[in-house]
Fold this sequence. Notes:
This is EAL domain-containing protein. The chain is α/β, with parallel strands linked by helices. It has twelve helices and nine strands. One magnesium ion is lined by residues 181, 203-204, 237.
Amino acid sequence: QVKNNGKNHVSFYDAALSRNAVEHFQLETELRQALSRKQLKMFYQAQIDLNTGIIIGAEALIRWQHPTQGLIPPMKFIPLAEETGLILSIGEWALRESVRQAHAWHKRHPEFKKIAINVSAVQIMKSKFADTVYGILMESDCDPSIIELEITESTLMQHTQHVVDTFNQLKKLGISIAIDDFGTGYSSLSHLKRLPLDQIKIDRSFVKDLPDDKDDAAITSAIYAMATQLGFTVVAEGVETEEQEKFLQRLGCQTAQGYLYAYPVNSDDFLQLLVLNNQRKIKRHA
Ligand code: C2E
Ligand code: MG
Ligand code: MG
Ligand code: MG
């Protein structure tokens, strides 16, 4: 009887597995068509100058407007896109779209001076990424200094020489590079010295329990001090409360991003936010 139970259990498990495989395959088929069907959208989350409250830039965050499943967050399809290689075309689209949008905003609102765009390790490893970026810059006539590429710490770990070469090429184009989710990966500090980096983003997991959690307060202070002394600028991500904001301000942190200021929104809503917020703040700080 025990054996029989075991067998039933196994076949039940198999059925669940193959159902998963079918769903997985269907999602992949749909993702292949998502680009040409214009179902991918860029959302934008404000980045705030902590001294003035002015919106000085945005992070571009991708969404999939699925015909039946609604708005699908990136964590549900970026890994699949990476496995299948679809990230190359999706990532290039995201880059082109974000650059075009940022160029338009910067021209009319010069205080908006930075667009941060997430780049997957696969894009860096499997394509002539710097050439792609150069092509997009040429098409859009965009000032390269408003573009910042966000690379996660784990990307830095892999294939170091190629990463170093690509980063150097990107720097020559005049764009800047940020390390995303800093503190969650395992990049050795010597990498930081060797790579041409501009900015460190302190991961949300350290910000979440500020200021009460003594360990997180120590880690955040240490990351900030190290980053500043190495000549990097610092952005704190995931700021949700005024207590967190105060802690970061006291530390000297210049820039923050989080639900306290704004959720990621579509481009129309972002423009409205930019204009309304900055009219108010610029008047106050004039
Ligand atoms: P990330 O780059 O670390 O982006 C920050 C994530 O934290 C975003 O989730 C954002 O909505 C969320 N967030 C921002 N402020 C807060 C806050 O105050 N509280 C909380 N709880 N969350 C906050 P999202 O948009 O779901 O993106 C998740 C991840 O997907 C990103 O993490 C990034 O790694 C990846 N991703 C997004 N867009 C792209 C893209 O165009 N290309 C690639 N390769 N990856 C992307
Ligand atoms: Mg990011
Ligand atoms: Mg991040
Ligand atoms: Mg993060």
